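FAQ: What does a multi-protein file look like?

Like this. Sequence, then tokens, then the next protein.
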Amino acid sequence: MSSRVVHCEDALAWLEAAPVLEGCSLVTSLPDVSEFRLSLAEWKTWFTNTASLVLSRCSSDGVTVFFQSDITVDGAWVDKAYLVQKAAEARGHALLWHKIACRAPAGTLAAGRPAYSHVLCFAPTLRLRDPKDLRTDVLPSTGEKTWESGMGLDVCRMVARFVQTHTRSHTVVNPFCGEGAMLAAANAEGLSAIGIERSVKRCERARLQCVRADGQGWANL
């Protein structure tokens, strides 16, 4: 039977204190520069170091998935997929797949950010031998979100199903879990879930978030 635990604490401190998470896969969306009092250069260093830390806690038979949206700062593009891949390459983790999830219909302009987000899956040892395992490269929608910065339902369920069918993981660990969309999707697919989030309000929501019985939206426990 799947379970859920949400730790209300700093995700970096939790990860640094944790060993390799055997039987687990990790899924996360790292915070944006707008959430820090750091220069862009300082935040890029923080971002790649944190991505490396998350990757380092993945078990040998698990995967690490990042959901990231690019930004522009002072007229220059910041490609978060590149930053994540930079950290993974240094760690020796292979990129299993890289999908694009549309935040707005193709051909339209999304306010504030690009009309898509990256979804990248890395693994230290797992490899996909059958091309069919790569599935769809472009997701037409992220799906319904619980909040603006969250992962959408379609992305969360796709990731949870991949973990369930292609790894030996029984638990999804979600640092910076926000309101718990990924935790709820993991539970809906029969996986246990552990979330780490320092916001008390978001932790409370993460403990109650669930996927509706019809699989078409969000509800509360």
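And here is the next protein:
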Amino acid sequence: MEKYGWSDRPNPVAFPIERAGYAFIFAAAFVTAVMALLELTVLALVGLSATFFICYFFRDPDRVVPQQDNLVVSPADGKIVAVAKMAENPYYDGSCKKISIFMSIFNVHVNRIPLDGDIKRIRYYPGKFFSANLDKASQANEHNAVWVETKNGEQVCFVQIAGLIARRIICRVQEGDPVKRGQRFGLICFGSRLDVYLPENTDLKVAVGDRVKAGTTALGELA
């Protein structure tokens, strides 16, 4: 039987919300209250709907994480839009395998660490804001690249990419931090994409079109 565990302490509330969303929620709720006091019923209802949606968008559910050795889990919720072998790229020395995950505004946007190890490098790149489901978004859009090295010396890179609407990338880990598979490390606000670069000999577990969940779905197994 496959073993599962917790990488983060479970939340004490039934509907946990990512703290980055508090300002958006309070702002929407304040505007809604003003519209209600002014008896602008339609606008108040629109504001109430927006407030509920923002709460839904910033939801942060707990996830159980598979404990199998050498497993790489998805760092994001969403849909696999690309799986490819690459001879060279800016994020990995030599040939590798790349998996791209597109997050719509309806997905959970909290990002999680894909494997156990230490943070070796973090590089932020300013850029444009093309739709995140386009191939050119990987390098042209604003993005934040994080490299993790395992105890066996394998390196994996995962890249948070801003989208057409997403304009804020949050990353809460720093170089040198030890990290655990499935651990929360950041998010991208309002629709985005996350690319994962794996060693060429990784045994992939997903294909284009698959739906994945951060911290739970296995993307592949390192050799």
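Q: Is there any per-entry metadata?
A: Some entries carry free-text notes. For the entry above: The chain has two domains: 19-57, 65-221.
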